[in-house]
Design goal:
Layout lengths: L1 H16 L74 H9 L2 H15 L4 H14 L1 H13 L13
Helix pairs in contact: 3-5, 4-5
Length: 162
């Protein structure tokens, strides 16, 4: 009967307190363990890593991938996970879609983007504008003009300099 209680007590804590039950002092391990990357959920008591990002790749170099964590290759041959970074064609499909828009759709599109990135830090806007420029120069210019109307950075007349 005591063995059954050992199971049910821990299970009850996980049910009642949520995924982060281990952060309560009474439930915390005596020795620090690696972060399990549970950023959300009930009973978060440790500050939730503050503003640190928890994805990779990121511009801060946080949480780099570790090749030691890869699964071992299968015995049947060289089977591995697909590396999505091998393909660098990220811009042809958005460019094709952008070219399908008529003038009214483009204006709504530029305004929508501008309203959502207005007030974002300049370095992030600059990085995003580079993506827009790679899609289409008119795309980047339209977003820059819409941002200028909202009081963002001044619009450039040369789309290559947006």
């Amino acid at each position: 009967m005591l063995q059954g209680r050992l199971f049910s007590y821990g299970d009850t804590q996980r049910y009642r307190l949520g995924i982060n039950h281990h952060q309560l002092p009474v439930n915390a391990p005596r020795v620090a363990v690696a972060n399990p990357f549970h950023r959300d959920g009930a009973m978060r008591t440790d500050g939730n890593l503050g503003g640190r990002v928890n994805y990779e790749p990121n511009r801060y170099g946080e949480f780099p991938q570790d090749a030691n964590a890869n699964e071992p290759p299968l015995a049947g041959g060289a089977v591995q996970r697909y590396d999505h970074r091998e393909d660098d064609d990220y811009y042809s499909q958005p460019a094709a879609l952008f070219r399908l828009f008529d003038d009214a759709q483009r204006e709504r599109f530029f305004g929508n983007i501008a309203r959502h990135i207005h007030g974002v830090p300049d370095e992030i806007v600059a990085r995003q504008m580079e993506h827009f420029r790679r899609i289409d120069l008119a795309y980047a210019q339209g977003v820059a003009d819409a941002l200028a109307k909202l009081g963002g950075k001044a619009s450039e007349k040369d789309p290559a300099a947006v």
